[in-house]
């Protein structure tokens, strides 16, 4: 057990009422060192969200072990050391943007943790001018920026993000990716990011974890040796395209594993 990484060993999980021959997770092994940005990608239903929720301490598992920087997921969760950004931002509708973003400061004071200056966070996601607006007055992209700023406000040791940009148009998505990287570089948080976009996974990550369905487990971990910052020249360069092709090929072979007859898969 190490305090400088997330360690997942032999993790299995079958949901109540689910078919025991088709666990959501079936022997997941994974190491994520502290301060890395790691993306999970894989076919629909391969268990990405389930893995995220188990690491977050929000979901039980059946067998195997999960330790997050030397602690259990549940104790990390209780200590407010883990943040979760879901696909749909859950903002408090009766609080304006600034008060939504400053909410963690109050929670953190109770948990004895420091927190980040809300005005700095709003600047970093380019929302200073919207500080007094209410959630119903914001676009989808703005709401997600508020949710991300708020999540970083907790100064979490670990931030788990479940397809946070999937509902956004491509232009907004790319702008938010850059803002997210800016926050991550400043806060040195460990980020685990679920996405269906190969380009997004490669743009953001130090490593891309490709998962297979049936069995739901790690198929391959691909390092992303692109320089940072990931500016225009980097994300349009030949190395970027080569890495995207590499991830696509891995996804294809992960998909072929999932498409194999059950008796072969489970042998
Ligand atoms: N609450 C639940 N109850 C029962 N089964 C569930 C539940 N949540 C997920 N599952 C099942 O577990 C498996 C993995 O689901 P999960 O949502 O983790 O996959 P995913 O890779 O995140 O999928 P997607 O990419 O479509 O979001 C699927 O077969 C799904 O139907």
Automatic annotation (TrEMBL):
Single GO MF annotation: ATP binding
Location of the ABC transporter domain: 6-238
Keyword Methyltransferase: no
Keywords, ordered alphabetically: ATP-binding, Nucleotide-binding, Transport
UniProt KW Nucleotide-binding keyword: yes
Pfam family, one: ABC_tran
Gene3D superfamilies to which the protein is assigned, alphabetical: P-loop containing nucleotide triphosphate hydrolases
Record-linked InterPro entries: AAA+_ATPase, ABC_transporter-like_ATP-bd, ABC_transporter-like_CS, ABC_transporter_ATP-bind, P-loop_NTPase
Stored PROSITE patterns: ABC_TRANSPORTER_1 (PS00211), ABC_TRANSPORTER_2 (PS50893)
PANTHER family referenced in this protein's UniProt entry, alphabetically: ABC TRANSPORTER ATP-BINDING PROTEIN, TAURINE IMPORT ATP-BINDING PROTEIN-RELATED
Name of the featured protein: NitT/TauT family transport system ATP-binding protein
Species name: Nocardiopsis sinuspersici
Lineage summary: Bacteria, Bacillati, Actinomycetota, Actinomycetes, Streptosporangiales
